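pasting for ref
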Amino acid sequence: MVNNNAILIICLLFSLTVIGTEAIRCYQCSSDTDPKGEDLCGAYKKFDKEKNIPIECNSEESNMPGTFCVKITHQSPRGFIWDGRWRQVIRRCASVASTGVTGVCNWGVYENGVYWEECSCAHDACNGT
């Protein structure tokens, strides 16, 4: 005879597998991997949603699994490079927010003067703004 606890555990694991099959979809790119002369991740120009597609965060296509989306921006102080400022934008899935809260943006300035901003959100393709 099978133990009732074993049946309960099997049913619980099965239900978690069925429920957890649909994952959030996020844009995934980084401006430092853009081809020379192109701005596919939206560091300097408006992010083009036609040239990028959201990736399911728990699929093999995702560079990092996760349950929410994040957009990270770094920008140098004025005059850091001869053409003014450099910017870097990273859009990806994430599983742990540094603040523990999604749906907000946090920002600050590193000791070297580089501005940073991290925005997290929890619905499909929300890191495209």
